[in-house]
Amino acid sequence: MKLILLGAPGAGKGTVAKILTTLDGSIQISTGDILRGAVQAGTDLGKEAEGYMNRGDLVPDSLIMGIMENRLQEDDCKNGFLLDGFPRTIPQAEDLNELLAKLDIKLDMVVNIDVPRDVIFDRLCTRRTCQNPECQAIYNTKSNPTKVDGICDKCGSPAIQRADETEEAIAHRLDTYNKKTAPLAGFYEKEGLLKTITGTSSDLVVDGIKKELGM
Ligand code: AMP
Known about the structure:
Elements: E1 2-6, H1 13-24, E2 27-30, H2 31-41, H3 44-55, H4 61-71, E3 81-84, H5 90-103, E4 109-114, H6 117-125, E5 127-130, E6 138-140, E7 159-160, H7 167-181, H8 184-190, E8 194-198, H9 202-213
Parallel strand pairs: 1-3, 1-4, 2-3, 4-8
Antiparallel strand pairs: 5-6, 5-7
The protein binds adenosine monophosphate.
Adenosine monophosphate (AMP) is lined by residues 9, 31-32, 35, 52-53, 56-59, 64, 85-88, 92, 164, 173.
């Protein structure tokens, strides 16, 4: 499947994407994961992106498009992909349309995962993320804690609160989402690709997606 997952930070895009990858060999492409990996590795991209990310601002469209243009042409995208956290602005969506046309790729659907703001705020404040760039497993101190406090169950690396998951940065990220990313729902509605699924359970969101795709 070739999907875009839209939704505020904390709506469950990453969790839904991970479940979907087990169904048909599609891969998850998370621009947030790619950028965090670059920050940890100390690459030029990471150095450029870090300040924006820690403040909860979006990194410039040109940086993101550079990443995605290469990523979508890698071999593992051939079986399908789930775009998680991209596009995040109208210019990114327009550029993505051009890129997909150039690569002769057609999207199946754009899924807008709609979750109430108070649920999202609470989820993000209690979220913990594995620091290992190869893993980046997600936990929650309330609903899905690590077995050993602060240690990733999967790889044993520290599972930490992200720098952009302080209350202040979260509030800013949600405002940025409302201003810059929420308008993408209208953009894809006009293209006839949008399906909005309201729900706080990732399993139910996945069921809704499978139904839409006739799986
Ligand atoms: P995420 O893990 O998707 O919440 O992304 C974490 C941070 O990475 C965001 O707050 C942005 O600073 C940056 N980021 C990720 N994806 C994008 C994107 N498509 N456009 C701009 N910035 C992004």
